[in-house]
Amino acid sequence: SPGPRHPSDDLLERRYRVVADVQEHYYTAPPQIERGWREYLMDVDGRVYLDMVNNVASVGHAHPRVVEAATRQMHLLNTNSRFHYGGITEYGEKIAATLPDELDTVFFVNSGSEAVDLALRLAMAATGRRDIVAMREAYHGWTFASDAVSTSIADNPFALETRPDWVHTVAAANSYRGAHRDADAARYAPEAVADIDRIVAGGALPAGFVCETYFGNAGGVALPAGYLQEVYAAVRRHGGLAIADEVQVGFGRLGRWFWGFQEQGVVPDIVAVAKSIGAGHPLGAVITRREIADRYRTQGYFFSSTGGSPVSAAIGSAVLDVIQQEGLQDNARDVGAHLAARLEDLGTRHPIIGRVHGSGLYLGVEFVRDRETREPATAETAAICDRLLELGVIMQPTGDHQNVLKIKPPLCVTKESVDYFADALARTLETGW
Ligand code: PMP
Predict the structure, then answer these.
(1) CATH code given to domain 64-325
(2) How far apart are CA 302 and CA 349, in angstroms?
(3) Nearest to 149 by CA among 272, 234, 30
(4) What per-residue string of b and e applies to 14-49 under the rule 16 or more CB within 10 Å gives b?
(5) What separation in Å is there between the alpha carbon of 46 and the centre of ligand 1?
(6) How many angstroms does the Cα of residue 160 sit away from the middle of ligand 1?
(7) Which of 130, 262, 302, 389 has a C-alpha 20 to 30 A away from that of 396?
(8) What is the per-residue pLDDT across 142-172, written as a single tens digit (0 to 9) for each?
(9) Mean pLDDT of 272-278
C-alpha cells in the first residue's frame, strides 16, 4: 500500500496555500513523485508506480535522447523565436512532413490552450467572421477563446450558461452514451449538419467548426464513421473552416493512425497540437495552409517569445525522432491491441464494464451500474482508481460522468506493464474496491 504520508510532510498544505487551489489535481492523498523513467514514476519513499495516464510523457519519462537534446541546446543557446537559428526551421519542416502536403505552414506556441486559441483566431481572420461551431462535452483549454468552446461539464459546470454568443454547439457524437447509441450513432452527422444549417439561417456564418477528431474527453470514443466528412463538408459549404484539436489524440497514440483525422478520412484546414509533441516541455503548434496563415495579419500581431525557441525546437525534434525511430506508433498499435483484448476479456466476467473504447494506447473502460440503462458508475470508478493506486497503478477517471478509466500511458509502455495493469484491474474487480 502507498502507506501514510510523512507526518512531517506539509508540502501539500504549503502547495495549496501558495499555488492557486483552483487547478484539479490527482488524488486527495497523492504520492509525492520524485522521478520518472519510461512508464514508471517513483515517489520520495522509493515506491514505484506504473503511469497509465500520462499522455504528456509521450516517449516515456526522462527519455535520454530528449534529456540530451535539451541539455545540449540549453548550453548552446536559448532565446526568443525572433532570432534566426536552425532549430525552428528544421523542426518546422519535420512536423509539417507528418501532415498532408497542403498543411505546410507552422506556428509554434507553448501549450494546447494557446494552440486552440490561435487556431480559432486563424479561422476568424481567414474568413472575416467570428462565429464558431463546437462539439459539446469537449475540453479545448483554459484561455479566453479555447475555454469559450469548452463545454464539458466535468471541466466547467457552468460551461453551457457562460458561453459567449459567438459559440454555437452541436451534440457530442458519442455512440455509447447520448441521444443516438450504437448503430443509431450514424444519425449524429446529419443532425449536426441540420444544426449548422439552422445556425447559418439564424444569421451566424461560422468561421469554423472545432472538435477533437477522436472523442478524447469521453475516454477515447471514435466518432461515428463518416462523421467528420459530413460535418466538415457542411461547414465548408457555408464558407467556414475545419479545425482539428489533435492535442490528445494526435502524434501516433491511436496506433493505426498518426493523426486522429486520418481515422475519419478527412483533411482539416487547421490542426492544433501540443502535449505529447513536447513530452512534458511546454510546446504547442498550429499547422495550416499558407493562405490561411497569411491572413492572420488581418487580426493583428503574432509573436510567441518561447514558442519554438531553440530549446523547445530541439526537444520537439528529439521527441519526433524518438517516436519515428523507436517505432512508438507501432508499439501503440500492438501493445494497445493486446491491452484492449485483456480489457474486453475482463468485460465478459464483470458487468460493471459497459464498454471498452478506443484505439492504440488511447483506451477507455466505461463503468456502468446497468448495461441496459448504462447508468454511470461514478463513485465506483473513483474507488477503483484509489484501489489501483494502492496496487501501484496511476489511473484517473474521465468523461462528463467521471465513469471512464482514462488509459493513455507513455507510448513506450511494454506488454508486461499493460499486463500488470490488467492484472491489477482484474484483482480490483474480483476482490472489491
Ligand atoms: N485540447 C485538448 C483536447 C486537451 O485535452 C487539452 C488539455 N487537457 C487542451 C486542448 C489544452 O492543452 P494545455 O493543457 O496544454 O493548455
Answers:
(1) 3.40.640.10
(2) 55
(3) 272
(4) eeeeeeeeeeeeeeeeebebeebebbbbbbeeeeeb
(5) 31
(6) 19
(7) 262
(8) 999 999 999 888 777 777 777 899 999 999 9
(9) 98
Rounded CA-CA distance 142/274 in Å is 14
Q: Is the CB of 139 under 6 A from ligand 1?
A: yes
Rounded to 5 degrees, φ, ψ at 270 are: -140, 130
Cell of 221: 470514443
The grid coordinates of residue 249 equal 489524440
Question: Which CATH architecture does the domain made up of 11-59+327-431 adopt?
Answer: Alpha-Beta Complex (3.90)
pLDDT 10s digits, 231-241: 999 999 999 99
Rounded to the nearest whole angstrom, what is the distance from the C-alpha of residue 156 to the centroid of ligand 1?
A: 14
Judge whether 346 and 425 are in contact, CB under 8 Å: yes
The pLDDT assigned to 9 comes to: 65
Residue 1 is predicted with a pLDDT of 44
User: Are the C-beta atoms of residues 120 and 149 closer than 8 Å to each other?
Assistant: yes
pLDDT in the model for residue 5: 53
The rounded percent of the chain whose pLDDT value lies above 70 is 98
**Residue 111 Cβ < 6 Å to ligand 1:** yes
Does ligand 1 lie within 6 Å of residue 274's CB atom?
yes
User: For the segment 70-119, what is each residue's pLDDT rounded down to a tens digit?
Assistant: 999 999 999 999 999 999 999 999 999 999 999 999 999 999 999 999 99
Q: Confirm or reject: Cβ of 248 under 6 Å from ligand 1.
A: yes
Whether the Cβ atoms of residue 228 and residue 219 lie closer than 8 Å to each other: no
Note the pLDDT tens digit of each residue in 294-324: 999 887 889 999 999 999 999 999 999 999 9
Cα-based distances in Å from 339 to 181, 324, 421: 25, 22, 9
Domain ranges for the chain, please list them: 11-59+327-431, 64-325
Residue 138 CA: which ligand 1 atom is closest? 3
Q: Above 60 in pLDDT, residue 429?
A: yes
